[in-house]
Amino acid sequence: MVLVADLLTDTNLTANYFASDVYVHGTLELGLLENRRGDRLLALPNTLIRAIYAGLEHETGQASMLVLYNCGRWWGKNFYIRFCEELSDYHNRPVTSLSMAEFMQALHQCSLTHGWWQISLDSTYRAEGFLVLKIRASAFIEDAPKLDRPVGFLETGVLQSFFSQLSGQTLHCVQTDCESLGAEENCFVLGLKERLVVAEAGGEQRLSHAEIMAALVE
Amino acid sequence: MTSQHILQQLESQPDRNYLTAEEVGVLNQYVGSLAERVRTYRQLREWEATLIQGLVDQLPVEVQKDTRPLEQSIKQTILILRYAALGMLVDDANLGHRRLEGWLPTMVTVHQTHTIDVLLNRSLNQQLSRLLSASQFILLKPALESAQQLLHNTSQT
Question: Cα-atom radius of gyration of chain B, to the nearest Å?
């Protein structure tokens, strides 16, 4: 028999930690924007994002893609630690006890509330050892320079280090579709580096996400 | 327009003209109903555990046996009730919907609670309409139903 009183012993039931109207706070007199734990937040103007792209291109040329990718990896690594810390503090249990769907719900809501993008997991190829992540409306891809290849360099880096830490394995990430190339959403495939060689090659030949995935699991 | 909207508007545009007669009327009505809202809120707070336990005890035996989804469903139902109570208190019927919309549909899918949620929430509404006075239930109903809508939005996830 289930006793409601037992379920209410830890008085606060947890729900949507990253809900935007409770997550973002402000101490406006001090010019501070904070999250619900008091960590500082700041809003980035679009022009600054565009300026970073332009400045990098000007100073480093081709290498700017690599720089952004590495920045993404650095960001993803730290973001993963903070994200898990916040979630486990809030739910009062380790992140590993959350189901993948609950974890992804929190990640999706977190990204939305920060205004980065919408993210979802496609587990179709999980059994074959590949994770597919789909990102829509990325603030960074929207302002990236148009190239004849996918331009989610930051996202590629973030996803790679975030999911490497989550899975406890060194994963590699390849972007297989990009909104900047007219795709409906940005697709990223994660897996072991040696198994993603085909994906890298497929990207250079401008194959679609579906074609690349078909080649990967062949 | 609810009093919550009017107050928010007033806060964000303090240099705006005075409120219109209609808006003052809405506020006036809200203030007039505030004692009733606080009373209802206090009752819900006091009844919560007993009320929900009563609903659980009336569930079919086979549903009660499946404790994991049942516990999850109870938590979800309590959250809905709490957000509805708060939404009623501050005259913000969409409060629960707003806070829970990115979350509740996923939980219903993951923990497969839909059937129990429907049973629990249906009897919750019946029970509340009996326990509360008619005017109290009218105050609570919009916030309650708005949050409960999320239980049926699960196909998107």
Answer: 18
Q: Which fold is adopted by the domain A46-217?
A: Muramoyl-pentapeptide Carboxypeptidase; domain 2 (3.30.1380)
* Tokens found for residue A148: 């004849």
Residues in B closer than 8 angstroms to A21, CB to CB, are 98-99
Q: How far apart are CA A69 and CA B11, in angstroms?
A: 43
Q: Which of chain A's residues have a Cβ under 8 Å away from the Cβ of B71?
A: 2, 7
Question: Does A93 contact chain B (CB < 8 Å)?
Answer: no
For residue range B108-118, list pLDDT tens digits in order: 998 999 999 99
A112: which chain B residues are within 8 Å (Cβ-Cβ)? 102
* Percentages of chain B per state (helix, strand, coil), in multiples of 5: 80, 0, 20
Residue B152: count of CB within 10 angstroms of its CB: 12
Would you list the domain boundaries of chain A?
A: 46-217
Averaged pLDDT, B23-30: 91
**Which pLDDT score, from 0 to 100, does residue B149 have?**
96
- pLDDT higher than threshold 70 for residue A114: yes
Task: Give per-residue burial for A59-83: e unless 16+ CB within 10 Å, then b.
Answer: eeeeebbebbbebbbebbbebbeeb
Could you read off the pLDDT of B79-89 as tens digits, one per residue?
999 999 999 99
For residue A147 the two structure tokens come to 């190239």
Tell whether A5 lies on the interface with B, counting CB pairs under 8 A.
Answer: yes
State the Cα–Cα distance between residues A202 and A181, nearest whole angstrom.
15
Domains of chain B: 34-156 (1.10.490.20)
Q: Which of A4, A7, A105 lies nearest to residue B102, judging by beta carbons?
A: A105
Contact A21 B79 (CB under 8 A): no
Give per-residue pLDDT as tens, A71-84. 999 999 999 999 99
Best CA proximity match to B114, nearest among B51, B70, B57? B70
Chain B nearest C-alpha distance from A209 (Å): 22
